Amino acid sequence: MERVPIQLTVNGQSYQVEVEPRMLLVHFIRDVLNLTGTHIGCDTTSCGACTVLWNGRPVKSCTVFAVQADGGELLTVEGLERDGQLHPVQEGFWEEHGLQCGFCTPGMMMTAVALLQENPDPSEEEIRKAISGNLCRCTGYVNIVKAIQYAAHTMRETVPAAAGIAEGE
Amino acid sequence: MTTTPIRGLGHPVKRKEDPRFIRGKGTYVDDIKLPGMLYLDIVRSPYAHARIKRIDPSKALAMPGVVDVITGAELEKAGLAWMPTLMSDRQMVLPTERVVYYAQEVAAVVATDRYTAADAVLAVEVEYEPLTPVLDPFKALEPGAPLVRPDREQKTNHIWHWEAGDKEKTDRIFQEAEVVVSQDLYIPRIHVCSIETCGCVVNYDRATDKLTIWMTSQAPHAHRTVFSLVSGIPEHKIRIISPDIGGGFGGKVPVYPGYVIATYAALKLGKPIKWIEDRSENLQADSFARDYHIHAELAATRDGKIRAMRVHTVADHGAFDAAANPSKFPAGLFSVCTGSYDMEAAHVAVDGVYTNKPPGGVAYRCSFRVTEAVHTIERMVDVLADELGMDPAEIRFKNFIRPEQFPYKSPTGWEYDSGNYPATLQKALDAIGYQELRREQAERRARGELMGIGISTFTEIVGAGPSHTFDILGIKMFDSAEIRVHPTGSAIVRIGVQTQGQGHETTFAQIVAEELGLPVENILVEHGDTDTAPYGLGTYASRSTPVAGAATAVAARKIREKARLIAAHLLEVSPDDLEWHDYAFRVKGSPDRFKTMQEIAFAAYTNFPQGLEGGLEAVCYYDPPNMTFPFGAYVCVVDIDRGTGLVKVREFLAVDDCGTIINPMIVEGQIHGGLTMGMAPALLEEIVYDDNGTILTGTFMDYLLPTAVETPHWKTDKTVTPSPHHPLGAKGVGESPTIGAPPAIVNAVVDALSHLGVRHIDIPITPAKLYQLLAEKGVAE
Amino acid sequence: MIPAPFSYRRAASIEEAIALLQQYGGDAKILSGGQSLIPMMKFRLAEPAVIVDINGVPGLDTIEEHNGLLAIGGLVRETTLERSPLIRQQYPIIADTAEVIADPLVRNLATVGGNLAHGDPANDHPATMLALRAEVVARGPSGERVIPIDEFFVDTFTTALAPDEILTEIRVPAPPPHCGGAYMKFERKVGDYAVAAAAAFLALDEAGKIARAGIGLTNVYHKPLRAEAAERALLGQAPSDELFRAAAELAAQAADPTSDLRGPAEYKRAVARTMTLRALQKALSRARAA
Hints:
The structure holds three protein chains of three kinds. By secondary structure, chain B is an alpha+beta fold. Chain B has three domains: 18-25 and 479-622, Aldehyde oxidase/xanthine dehydrogenase, molybdopterin binding domain (Aldehyde Oxidoreductase, domain 4, 2-Layer Sandwich); 32-131 and 196-246 and 252-285, Aldehyde Oxidoreductase, domain 3 (Alpha-Beta Complex), CATH 3.90.1170.50; 288-464 and 626-776, 2-Layer Sandwich (Aldehyde Oxidoreductase, domain 4), CATH 3.30.365. In chain B, strands 3-7-1-14-11-12-13 form a seven-stranded mixed beta sheet, with helices on both faces. In chain B, strands 9, 10, 15, 16, 17 and 18 form a six-stranded mixed beta sheet that branches. In chain B, strands 21-31-32-33 form a four-stranded mixed beta sheet, with helices on both faces. Chain B starts with 17 loop residues before the first helix and ends in a 5-residue tail after the last helix. Chain C has helices spanning 14-24, 37-42, 78-83, 85-90, 92-98, 104-107, 112-117, 125-132, 149-152, 228-234, 241-254, 265-289, and strands at 7-10, 28-31, 50-53, 63-66, 69-73, 135-140, 143-148, 153-155, 158-159, 166-173, 179-187, 194-204, 210-218, 225-226. Chains A and B meet through helix 1, helix 2, helix 3, helix 4 and helix 5 of A and helix 1 and helix 17 of B.
């Protein structure tokens, strides 16, 4: 079986591994790196439970091969907290009851982190559009919108602390 | 007094489960990895009905990394080819002769990793002889229809007939009634689609002879009992752990063949086995919901007083009756279909039918078949209003069970505990500006625009249930709580129900905080592990707060009674001289002489009176005296795009009454989610098969879960009418909005078109379906 | 859902990618955004023996205007396109199109080249590029050739690209004065393919009459469809509601959709008419504002 060496940075940590070309990035993250916060909810690039930031952009890691990430940087939900300090998006989801079963939450939060990097003060409509690639079956989205607004507000108040995190550093 | 706030009932306490979820540190079944673990994957049928002529696993077995291929023939030898369903039917684990629905499990492969297992599934050769499937339940009942279940003694596709109410009286009223309306309603097959699919990890430890199963289960105790009965393994040798569950909604109540095959494989191979279904398998083969063909009639006076209701339903159960209803209720609680309205009589009959479709009849975030019941009555009231030219609000006010009639005995035998329907509807109408909306609608109509206002004033029935009436496979539907207070005044609570996102770890802690006067952060809630949690029937049908919540309150009160004795000892007074007030036992008449629970807890281990046992703990198995009956009034405003048929929900207000509220933040979150799962089948979701019984909606590309863009910004409000029989007055809320929302939406769409002679539209109201109707009525653009 | 095994080749240059395609013939597939290819591979509807990853090929991800043409590199991501100030200001029809493709996460990877080269009549860019009279630049072993968009779409999942050719660029004529375009898509939910969608492009002359008209339709024919009769009906006319309705009707008549879960053929035809009308109206208001 063909195996391809890859080198990449995940949550600031560097990895060098060999993978089968067909290995999906989500399986690499979950099964090889044991970062199980990134979830799998569908087969069709529909649900977004597997969303991670790849070179700063949120992507569905079930629709990327691990080999493609060679040389790149990934940020998963496990990388959001820094020095014991929750990311404002994590705080927002907790404060505003933006999660119930928690299964879509990591992917949803990664999308939110990227949105707020691009747009520090999104309207409700902009938030709803931005998270429309992430399905949630529990919350009805109302509190997810509030959670992202909460995070946006916090980040605007404390810009230097939060800046740069979506880059995976 | 304690300085840390208690934050018991009524506080929007931030969830105790969230710190792990927001860090990606939840533990879902697929996150569990054991040394030497093998992966199981399933070969599924490409036919809805076929004879299996041959299964050849040799090519799969020859693949590197493939450990085993398991077939029905092998399971039959072990006595495991069939398993019981929760409805006392039986279901194939793996077939020995024939398959009876598309995507049915045919064989299982076990391999060293999930990629090899997936390859091996394709290498198993199966030769089928296709048979004619029967997909329509009405055709299935015709003489000469293909037999779905030749294994049964009765050579018919009819499963059961069930009735409730007074047929004779109902028929008499219909004969003499001034007005009769009737309507056919189809409530199609849908699927819960929790974002986490189903699966398990099974580990058999030869050294301890113990079988441990991590399972996506809403009811781990009931599943342990079923596993023990099926396998013959003593129950104490089986441990089922329901870890973090990524949404349930009813879909994780049944036992699926995959669990059984994985368990068999773990026992056979002596290695841990993981089985996680993919989304296609989940959608195509796991238990469906609804699929009710309903014929409903109302008899009324000319001035709009409903006198009687008559309903006949054909229930399509697929190839096995694998619903998850209480044993005595094959059609669930469908007989609550007289809803919020006082009438003289009702009669309900349901016939269950087999077809070549996946098994089920589980809930989709609703108490047993209550969505079907509520959809029927809420639609029929609007049909009657249309017939009589009455306003939908006016006809509801005229027919509501009045507040002074509670407890109210319904014509089908239910005793509604409490309610104040007119107040709730009035609150909703005032808040949304009903009269103003009606004026706007008239103006828009004059301009040729289509706008509708829909009302739904539903009554739920939850909290199953009293032991004299409710059981599943004979196990009574009580639920349980066990509380242990530690010497320093913190506590652990173990409960028999299992959260799938509802926030039990927080709300149950709040109940104990309120009852014992301990700060909520000092209370740990555990559940889902059958080795440690007390026996309970699990979380579904909005039963956690009504049943296990009551058990928790009662167990806490038992602790309080013992605490009174210790407090009396400490304060050197008689127990009768103490009263529980402001979270402490206080001497009557001298309220500053008191002992807090924290002080009492310490004394329970260090300084308890002679003759009293040490420690401070209690258990309660709560047998509810009655069901609870949450209710609500929903108003929905829609605009219809005449060029596409799209329904736009412009505004939706939900006024819910679920009795006493434990955590208002969580209750509101449950309502938002429930409304979304009500809107989805009203406008988007439906399981569709082609003429061969092949599913056409087997992925998220075609089974349409709403995103944040399709979902409206829900508005909520409340009234509070406590349940008189629940220790806290709480009623349960998780499912009310799922049952209340669909008729509000449909009523709004029909209302938008009522001036064109439209009286009913079946769900889902897709743009294509609606556009066709607009074209027929000459208003399509 | 796991893809079948394959060999992975990362091309560092377009020449290397073409050489790999030549080497492996029909067994190789180009991987650009992968947002259609990888799902097909997971369902084993596609089982290429070799994947040629062109994401590392430099120079294919630029958006530039030169010589009266807009040149969009084949590897430009939909998100880049929808956020580009140049596209938003000068070519809003392309921004309209990009921002309704799939969902925002898919758009972070999906490429405009892939959207066209897949030859899927359900994809969104084809209709817009038909309306804009774009050209497709293809590179193969014998060099570069320019394919007019009208010749590019051959059939469902079939384009004029040879097996060893790669779509490197899309060229769109720079906007004439007083022009406007719009793309209107009707989908059942975000992430769905269009029930029907229409791209409309209009340029007005000094007298305010229609000097140029382009109409493309999505998902209503076995390939992306240019509604030529509708375009002809508009030319030389003064814009009016009746004129647009007549053109939308002609566009709908050109459609030949198939019935499926999105609705019966008749319905899709009706939606095509509605979308064409609305796209024309929006295109006109943009043209007048320009």
